[in-house]
Specification:
Layout (H helix, E strand, L loop, with lengths): L9 E4 L2 E10 L1 H7 L10 E4 L6 E3 L2 E4 L9 H12 L3 H10 L2 H10 L4 H14 L14 E2 L12 E3 L4 E3 L15 H9 L1 H10 L3 H22 L6 H12 L8 H12 L15 E5 L6 E6 L6 H14 L6 H15 L6 H15 L11 H7 L1 H15 L5 E3 L5 E3 L4 H5 L4 H39 L4 H13 L6 H5 L7 H16 L1
Parallel strand pairs: 3-5, 6-8
Antiparallel strand pairs: 1-2, 2-3, 4-5, 7-8, 9-10, 11-12
Helix pairs in contact: 3-5, 4-5, 7-17, 8-9, 8-14, 8-17, 11-12, 12-13, 12-17, 17-20
InterPro entries: Fido, Fido-like_dom_sf, Fido_containing
Protein name: Fic family protein
Organism: Pseudohalocynthiibacter aestuariivivens
Length: about 500
């Protein structure tokens, strides 16, 4: 199928500047030719003049020998061969072309693995069979190229002679690229490293370390949202995190978790949204919404939430636990099914997957929220890596309540997105908790016990007073302040104060 609308060499394509005058190919050419209203892939492809393949400013420039035929088939096969699967683009593309045109290319090359993959994807995404007999020959081909993107084992489809190894359903199937960074993380076997660290810690210290890390994660998760709730609420949420992975996900479980997170429902309507939602601010004078991210339409929530549940129950076990956790958690937060509590539940889902898959040692919760809080700017950039590309394709209007009402069909944008950057970021956070937070907290508790026993040998005082003494010394660089000497610790002699300061230095600072 020829298409005269395919561009020739350009320096700018739909506001995207190329690093040189080049010919857009693959998804870039198809999105432009068929005027697809869809978030563009993070990296687009073009054919340059030089015999060198390079990547720059969101473009991968190929050599003249890579140039495909300027047809629907040519550019689509190029995309599958070099750019992997972008299900949102593919679905909008298939909706834009005539079924007869797709049938024609399948009849012309019925044994081609790329064509049979296109055939399956057309019928799977559109839930519509083409007027074609079942394939009679051809080696079974994987729908997801395992060398490009992470996939599950999958099941065979005789009609197309393919293996559907997509890691999800039509209702929720984000994809992740096999980058060098992710390959290194997977090969590092961080779960085994964590168990090795835990194996060197005594049972008493390990129990206290686990309790501290759990509380640290709960506090950090609220802090990320700019909240400082009462300690009782932090503890309740910490208890829920400690039970992550023990209860299967379903709609009732999501509702239970939201009630724990919110606590008081006086001003927040609990339950799944029955109106639009967005993340952002309001214009100061008019109160018009200024969204940074627009949530999925409330009409689409039942299918999207079920898609997340199905992924958790049927597909998460097929891929690396950290990658699965990133897909599930970031998919949830983009959908934003609740009016409030989405961020904390999104981070809870990380713990849910890691625990369910046995990634973290028994009884240990990695303080992922703490690692995220320390890298809050990076976290926001990862969230915006998709939100910023999505926002221009969501048509909306303000409501009387100064919320947003989405006017176009956006459900595909939440079902299908590239979660590669999200998986890389989560791996970095998990690595920090294993290699730094866990051993450092355990080592600190050992030093604190030494400090406590030496203080008790010098001066008899209750455990709570020793804790207070420790905090005063910590806050003042190992020196007891004059205010503390004159008030809480007025009974201490100058000699005792000097010895306590030495104990602190030798036990804690070293």
């Amino acid at each position: 199928m020829e298409n005269n609308q395919f561009s020739g060499p350009v320096s700018v394509l739909q506001e995207n500047r190329l690093p040189e005058m080049a010919l857009p190919v693959g998804y870039a050419a198809l999105i432009d030719a068929y005027e697809l209203q869809v978030p563009t892939p993070l990296t687009l492809s073009a054919i340059g003049k030089r015999h060198k393949v390079y990547t720059e400013n969101g473009w991968r420039i190929y050599t003249p020998r890579h140039e495909p035929r300027a047809t629907f088939e040519g550019h689509l096969v190029f995309a599958l061969k070099y750019e992997g699967l972008d299900l949102a683009v593919l679905k909008r593309l298939f909706e834009a072309v005539s079924p007869a045109d797709v049938e024609a290319i399948i009849r012309a090359k019925p044994t081609s693995a790329y064509i049979r993959r296109i055939w399956f994807l057309y019928e799977w995404l559109l839930e519509r069979e083409l007027d074609l007999p079942d394939a009679k020959s051809g080696t079974y081909a994987d729908i997801v190229d395992r060398k490009q993107q992470w996939a599950v084992k999958g099941e065979t489809f005789r009609r197309h002679r393919v293996r559907n190894n997509l890691p999800g359903t039509r209702s929720f199937c984000p994809l992740v690229w096999r980058t060098e960074k992710l390959e290194r993380f997977v090969e590092a076997k961080l779960d085994e490293q964590a168990r090795a660290v835990v194996g060197k810690i005594s049972a008493n210290i390990l129990a206290r370390t686990a309790a501290f890390l759990l509380l640290k994660d709960s506090k950090s998760s609220y802090a990320i949202e700019g909240e400082a709730p009462p300690h009782s609420r932090i503890q309740r949420w910490g208890k829920a995190i400690g039970e992550a992975g023990k209860h299967p996900l379903d709609q009732n479980e999501f509702l239970r978790l939201q009630r724990i997170v919110i606590g008081n429902e006086r001003f927040i309507r609990l339950g799944f949204r029955d109106e639009g939602g967005f993340v952002g601010d309001h214009e100061q004078d008019t109160r018009i919404p200024l969204p940074d991210h627009i949530s999925a339409r409330h009409e689409d929530l039942p299918a999207l939430v079920q898609g997340i549940i199905d992924f958790d129950q049927g597909y998460a076990e097929g891929i690396n636990p950290v990658i699965a956790a990133a897909v599930l958690a970031f998919g949830f937060v983009y959908i934003h099914p609740f009016a409030d509590g989405n961020g904390r539940l999104h981070r809870y889902l990380i713990h849910h997957v890691l625990t369910m898959r046995g990634f973290n040692p028994t009884g240990i919760v990695f303080p992922v929220s703490s690692a995220i809080l320390e890298r809050i700017d990076d976290y926001r950039r990862v969230l915006e890596s998709y939100s910023e590309r999505l926002l221009p394709f969501v048509e909306w209007e303000p409501t009387e309540k100064m919320n947003v009402r989405v006017l176009n069909d956006t459900s595909d944008f939440y079902k299908y997105f590239d979660a590669t950057l999200h998986a890389e970021f989560l791996f970095e956070c998990v690595q920090k908790t294993i290699e730094i937070d866990l051993p450092e907290e355990a080592a600190f508790l050992v030093r604190y016990d030494q400090f406590k026993s030496r203080v008790e040998a010098l001066v008899e005082m209750p455990a709570s007073t020793i804790d207070l003494l420790f905090n005063f010394l910590k806050q003042n660089g190992g020196q007891l302040s004059r205010r503390a000497r004159n008030n809480e610790f007025a009974e201490l002699t100058e000699g005792e104060v000097a010895q306590l300061e030495v104990i602190y230095q030798e036990s804690i600072v070293r």
